[in-house]
Amino acid sequence: MRKLAESEIISCEEEIAELKHQIVLLLIPSEETDNSDLVMEVTAGVGGQEAMLFTSEIFDMYQRYAAYKKWKFEILEYFPSEIGGLRHAVASIAGIEAYKYMKFEGGVHRVQRVPKTEKQGRIHTSTMTVAILPQPSEMKLKINPKDLRIETKRASGAGGQHVNTTDSAVRIVHIPTGVASECQQERSQIRNKEKAMQMLCAKLYNIKLEEETKKRNSVRKIQIGTKGRSEKIRTYNFPQDRITDHRISRSVHHVESFMLGEEMLDEMIQTLKEYADYESLMEIISENEK
């Protein structure tokens, strides 16, 4: 009888903890962008070819993470380097709560390891940048077609015969802001125009959101958007087989498992999400105490 009572106490305590967690989540206002799809940009930073190789690995990690979360991943732009690295790429990610999770990945990612080209075994430090832009719905962002200048040109770089024979590349400029986007990923000019428009909308929506965010600027450790884009958020240390997220001072081991883009990455993002929720709750409490 005593054992039965003890097990029931444990069960009730677990249920109380879960209910407390649910109450906390209900107190935290959800961001209007949390249910949005997104556009992800990756760009090689400091470190030459090694930075480009790392950029390619990070891009692949997010492609696998999208598959793990059952999201749709579509490449909008892809500029590879000579030795299999990646200079710059843009992808759209669509699915349930895609932005809610991926928004924590924007910022500078740093790698420390011995490059394959290094003959003396020295550890190099390289960087790459991830930008996560929520994709607006038509209701949230209206663009006047008269404000757009659409240019077509011949695509350049790798891509077969069609590259030099058709004006398939499309560049769209939003005249009032000067914001531009271009796409030459597809053979079809129509598809390139659609993708360029998708990127442009995400950029313009991001500007609009950041203007709103400035009005209620905070001192949070976890920054979303431009403010977090220049911030070093995570280090991948290969010799010590360790990943450190600097925003929450959390380290985990097994870099290769982490970069598979499955459970380990998902756990790190969940931890960041919980920390951000806690910061939001503290803000609400301090505002109510004023």
Q: How do the helices and strands line up, and which of them pair or pack?
A:
Blueprint: H1 2-27, E1 37-44, H2 48-68, E2 72-80, E3 86-94, H3 98-102, E4 107-113, E5 124-135, E6 148-153, H4 162-165, E7 169-174, E8 179-183, H5 189-215, H6 226-229, E9 232-237, E10 242-245, E11 250-253, H7 255-258, H8 263-289
Strand content: 25-35%
Whole-number radius of gyration? 22 Å
- The coarse overall form would be globular
Number of helices: 8
Q: Give the % helix.
A: 40-55%
Q: Tell me the distance between the termini.
A: 51 Å
Mean pLDDT across all residues, rounded? 82
**Could you list the spans in which at least 5 consecutive residues all have pLDDT below 50?**
159-164
- Widest β-sheet, arrangement of strands: 2-3-1-5-4-9-10-11
Tell me about the largest β-sheet.
8 strands, mixed
What does this structure look like?
It is a single chain. The chain is 41% helix and 26% strand. The protein is built from 8 helices and 11 strands. The strands form 2 sheets. An 8-stranded mixed sheet has the order 2-3-1-5-4-9-10-11. A 3-stranded antiparallel sheet has the order 6-7-8, with helices on one face. Strand 2 and strand 3 form a beta hairpin.
Briefly summarize what is shown.
The protein is α+β, with helices and mostly antiparallel strands and 290 residues long. The chain is built from eight helices and eleven strands. The longest helix is centred in the last third of the chain and has 27 residues, at 189-215.
